[in-house]
Structures
1.
Amino acid sequence: MGTTLKRIIISGWQNFSRDGGIAVATIFILVMVIFLASTIFLSKDISQFLITSLQEKADISVYFKEFVLEDDILKIKEKLSQVPEVKNVEYVSKKEAIKRLVEKHPQLKESVQETEGMLNLASLNVNVFEANQYQPVVNFLENSNFKDQIDGVDYYKRKPVIEKIFSLTSLFNKTGIFLSIILIITAILVTFNTIRLAILNSIEEIKIQRLVGASNWFIRGPFLVQGVISGFIAVLISALIFSLICWFLSPKIEFFFAGLNLFNLFIKNLWILLLIQFATGILLAVISSTIAIRKYLKV
Amino acid sequence: MFKFKNVTKIYPDSSANSNDIVALGNVSFEIKEGEFVSIVGRSGAGKTTLLKLILVEEKPTKGRVFFEGEELSKLKPEKLPQLRRKIGAVFQDYKLLASKTTYENVAYVLQVIGASDLEIARDVPKVLEIVGLQDRTNNFPAELSAGERQRVSIARALIHRPKVILADEPTGNLDPYNTLDIIKLLLKIHEMGTTLILATHNKEIVNQLGKRVITLEKGRIIRDEEKGRFIL
C-alpha cells in the first residue's frame, strides 16, 4: 500500500513536471477560476458594506423643542428603538450637532458661534430597514404622547432622496446577484474546459495503462496528484496576486468609500479565502481526473 | 490455454445503405500453453480483432472466448487488470507512454503488478540488455527509432514473465534488419516457455518460422496447420 502510494505520488509529480505547456495552461485556468471564486466571495462583503453605508445615509432626523431635556430625548430614543421597523436610532446632542456642522462647513464657524444660543439642534437620527418603513415611523411620532416635544421631522423634505437611495441599493443588490451568476457560469465553463483539456491530454496514456493491466487507482492516482499539485501552485499564485491587488487598490478604494479597507477585508477573510481557493483548485482537479478516467476506463 | 468457440464479431457500419462489417465469423480454435501461433491474413481479415478479443478490448457479438477455462466476456471489469497482467502485448504502433523514459515504460508494468523497488532495479536493466537498449534507458519514446521503440514494447511485454505474449504486426513499421531482430527476440522469448501469438501479414517471416499458422480470410479461418506456411 505504502509502495503503491509512493509510486502514485512520484508518477503524478513526473507527469506534472514533464507536461510543460499543458501544466502551465492548466495552472493559468485554475488561477482564473480561483480568482473568480475569491472575487465572488469578497464582493459579497464589499457590496454589503456599500449597501449598508448608503442606507445609513438615508435617515430622518427628529428635532426637539428647546425646553426638552436630554433625559427626555433619551427616553423617546428608547421607545423609538422598540418600533419593529426601526433599525437604528442615534442621539445627536446640541453640542455634537454644532461640532458636526462646523466640521462640515468650516466657513460657518463664526456665524455658528454667534448664534449658538438660538440654535436648537438636538435630534434623533432614525434608520429603518426599508424605504417604505419611514412613513409608519413618522406616523408613530406624530401620534405619540410626546408629539408636543417634537419640533419637526425632516422626512417629507428628504423623502425623494431616501427613496432614490433605497432604489439605488436595491438595484445594486440585484446587479450584484446578476454579476455573481455571470461569474459562476464563467467559472463552470472554465472548469469544463479544464476537464476537456485533461481528457484530450490523457486519452492515449489511459488506454495504454489499462492495456498493461494497471488498476483504476494506479491510473487515477497520478492524475489526482498532478491535479492537486496544479491546484496548490494555482492557489499560491492567486493568493499572491489577490493580496497584491487588494494591497494596491485598498487606499484608492478607501479614498472613495471611507471605511472600506479592501486589504483589511482580505486579511480578515484570509483563512476562509484560502479554504475556498484550495477547495476550488483541488475540487477542479478531482472532477477533471475523475471525468477523464471514467470516460476512458472502458478500454 | 485459449479457446475460441463459434466466435463472431460484427461492427455496425454507421454509413447509410451499408451492411454491418463482419470482422470474425463463427471462428473456433484452441491454443495450447507453450505454442507459437501465427495468425495470418490480408489487412482487414480479422487478425487484430482476434487479439482484441483476447485482451478484452472488444467483446464477441456471438460465441465465447476462454482463457485458462474462464469465459472472458463474463469477466467483471474489476478483474480485467488481473487478466491483462498475465498477458504481454506488443503493438504495431508500440503504445508506449510518451511521458515516460525507456526505463520507466518497462518498469511501469512491474510497478503495476506490485513488484518491489529491488526487483525493478534488478530486472529492468536485464531485460533492456536482452533487447539491446541498455544505452537508451533515459530516452523518451520520441527520441527513439522505430526499431528501438518496438524493442521497448517487447521489453515491456516480457518484463513480468507473462504466460502469453500477443504481438500484433510487431514488424509492420520496421525495415528488414529490425524485422529480423524482433522476430529473433520473439523466438527467444518463446524458447523460454512463453506462449506466443503473432498476428502478421509478413509472408517471409511466417514461412521461416515453421510454426503453427492460422489463416484468416474475411473473418473466417480458411486454414489451420501445424508447421504451416503463408498461403493466400
2.
Amino acid sequence: MVSTQAQLGRWLRRSGTLIGFIVVIVYFTINIPNTFLTLPNWLNISQQISMLAVVAFTMTIVMVMGDFDLSVGSMASLAGIVAALLFRDSQPVLLGVVAALVVGLIGGLINGVLVSYIGITPFVATLGTLTVFSGVAFLLSGGETIFGRDIPADFSTFARGGIPVGMVNERPLLFPNLTIMALIVFVIVWVVLEQTAFGRRLYAIGGNVEAARLGGVRVRLLRLIAFMLTGMGAALAGLMYASRVASANPTQGAGLMLDAIAAVFLGMTLSEEGEPHVAGTLLGILILGVLDNGLTQMKVDSYVREVLIGAIIIGAVTSSSLNRRGR
Amino acid sequence: MASPLLSISNASKTYGSSRALIEARLEILPGQVHALMGENGAGKSTLIKILAGVVTPDSADIVRAGQPVSIHNPQDAFNLGLRFIHQELNIVPQLSAAENIFVSLPYPRRAGFLVNWAKLHADAEQVLAQLGIHHIDPRQQAARLSPGDQMLIKIASAFWGAERAAASVYVMDEPTAALTGDETERLFKVIRELQNKGCGVLYVTHRMREVFEICDMVTVMRDGRVVETRPIASTTPSDLIRLMTGRDLEQAYPPRTLPVEQAVTLDVRDLSTRQISGIHFQLHAGEILGVAGLTGAGRSELLAALIGAERRLTHDVLLDGAPLPPLDPTRAWERGFAYVPEERRTQGLMLSRSIQDNITLPHLQRISRGGVFLNRASEKRISTEMGKSVQLKSTGAEQITRQLSGGNQQKVLFARALVQTPRVLLLDEPTRGVDVGAKYDIYTLIRQISGRGAAVIVASSDLGELLGLCDRVLVMRKRRQSALVDATGMTAQELLTLCYDEAG
C-alpha cells in the first residue's frame, strides 16, 4: 500500500501547474484588486480565449495520438476567407459557415492522407500544408482583407451576442456566444476522447502504434478521421475570429498554432504519464488567457508579456519532466 | 587461494514495503566465470544495479582488489574496472566497428587535424586480436554487423577501456538472448580469453546449457537472498532448478489431460507472404502446434501472416470448414483469432496505459455500449476476471503496465487473448524473459485453453519448450515450411537437426 504521504507527494508533483495557476490568480487579485476577480473580467477572458480554445481542444485529438497539426493557423485563416468570399457574393450566412467547415474537413483529409497513407511524418506533412493553405488563402482573397458591408450583420453580431446573466453599469452583462461555442466544443471533444471506443483507440495509437495495429486498431483510418476533426476545429475557430472582428484576412489565424500547442503541453504536465488530455488543455488555455489578461491590466509591455508567457510554459514543462525523471 | 577481484556482502535494498535484496553476498575470483541465476524478482538485477552505481543500497560492503570501496554512480563503477554488457546493446549503428570500440576517445590525428584512419583501424584490429577475434572488419559499419558481432564489439570496447585498471570484472546480462549458436560459441571463446587474462565474469542467464558449458561457479538467488553458491562441477540442472524455485525439474511442463479433437479448426491449404511461403497444415481443436526454426527462418512471420499483419500473396484458408478471406488484425480478432506477439514491450503493450486498457483493446467493439461508448464498469470487471484467470500480480486493473514485471506484462497480453476463448490462439515466444515460476503458470494456462477447444500455435526458439508442450511441430527453414512432425518421443537433438536440414 502506498503511504498517504507518498500519495500526497505524488499529487503535489503532478499538480504543480495547477498550483502555479492558483498562485498567479492570487497574485493578480492582489495587484489588480478592483477589476481582476470580477465576473465581467472573467467573461471577457473567456471570450478572448474562446477561439484559441476551440483550436487547442481539437488539436488535443491529434496530439493524443502523438502527432502534430501545424496547419491549424493557416486553416483558420483560409476558412474565414472562404466564408467571407461567399458573403461578399451575397450568399446566405449558413452556406458560408458550412462551406468553411467543409474546407476544414477537406484540409484535414489532405493532412490525414499524407500522414496515414503516404507515410510522411505529421510534423513535416502539416508544415507543408500550412504553407499551402496559407497560399490558397492569399490566392482566393487577392491578398486583401474582406470587411465592412461585405460581412453580413447576422454573422458579425453572433460574436457580440450572448445570454444575459446580469446587469453592470445599467447595461446587460452577457455570457458570450463565443464562450458557449467553445464550451460546446470542449464537451464534444471530451466525450469523444474519454467516453468512446474511438477515443480509447486514439490513446492506444499514442501509446504504441504497432501494438495498437496488432491489437486490432484501424490505425490508418483513425488517424485520418482525427486529422479531419482537427481541420474542422480550425475552420470553426476561423469563423469565430471572422465574426469577432467582422472581417477576414489571409493571415488572421497566424498566432493560433503555437499557442494551441503550448496549451496542450501545459495540460500534459498534469497527467501521470505525460499524456495529452482535453481537461488539461482547458487549464492550459485558462493559464494563457489569465496571464495575458492580468499582465495587460498591469500595463506590462506586450513584448515583455510574450517573453514571460514563453518562459512560464518552458518552466512548467521542464519541472514536470524533471519530476518524472526523478522517479 | 587467489584473493577475489570483487566481493560484495551484506547487500540489502528495500523499496517501500518490498525487500528486493536481503544481505546478499557474492565473490568473483580472477579468471572465474560466475553464473548468477534466479527467477525474475529474485534480486539479481537489484544486485547488479548496485554494482553499476545505478541504485543506492540500504547497505553494502564492496571490496575491490582488497580495498573497500563505495559505488555512488556509474562513473565510480567504471573507474573501478567494472564493465556491464546488456542485452540491449548501446553501440552507435552509424559509426564503424573501430569507431565504436574507441567511442569514448578522441580520434587519433595526423598533422593535427586530419583523422588518422589507418591508426584507428590498426588499433581496433589489435584489440580484437587480443580477444581472439579475427573475423570482424573494423571498417564495417556497426549497423551491418550481426547482433553477435555487435556484442563482441561491445566487449572489445569495454576490454580496451579497462587496460590500465586492475584486471576487470565483466557483468554480462543474458548476452546470448539475441545470438545464434555460432555467435554464442564465438562469445564463449572470447570469454575464455578474458579468463586467461585474469578477468572475472559475472554471467546472468536463464539458460541452463550455457551455465554448464562456460561457468565455473554458480550463485542462486531466491526472494532477494543468495540461496547457495556452488562450483558447477558439483551440481546438476535439477539441483539448480530446485534451488531457484523450490520445485523439481519433472514439474516443468504440465501433462496433457484431454485428447486432441477430431474437428479441424484451421485448414491452411496454401499461405504465403512476401516473407514466407509454402505453408500448409491442418490444425485441430484442442491441439497445440509448435513452430520451430533457426533465427530468421520465418517463425514470427508465419504468426504475423495468420493474424493478418502482413499482406498475403496467396491465401487459401478455411476456418471451421468455411473459406476465410484474407483478414486484417481488426477482423482477425473479431473472427476469434488471438495474438500474443514476440516483443511485448514494442509490439504488444501500450506501456503508458493501464492493465484494463491493454486487456480490452481488441474487444472494445463488443464491450462498449452500442459499440461506441465505453463501458468502464464492464471493462474493469472483465479485466479483473481475466487477471485472476492468468494469476496476474498487480495493484489493480488501473495500474500502469509499465510498472509490472516482465512475467506479469506477458500475462496481461495473455489476458487480452483470452477475453473470449479464442478459436485460434497465436503465441510468439510466450515465455521469453519470464522466470521459471511464471513459465509454469503460462504452460498450465496454455493447456487449459487448449482443453477448452481452442487451437493453439506456439512459435518458440526453446526446443525443450516446444517438445514439452506441443503435439506436433511445424519446422520453418529459410522462410519456407520444411517439415511437419509429431512431437511425441522426439528429442531436442532430432528437432534441432530438422531445423538445419531438409526433411525426408
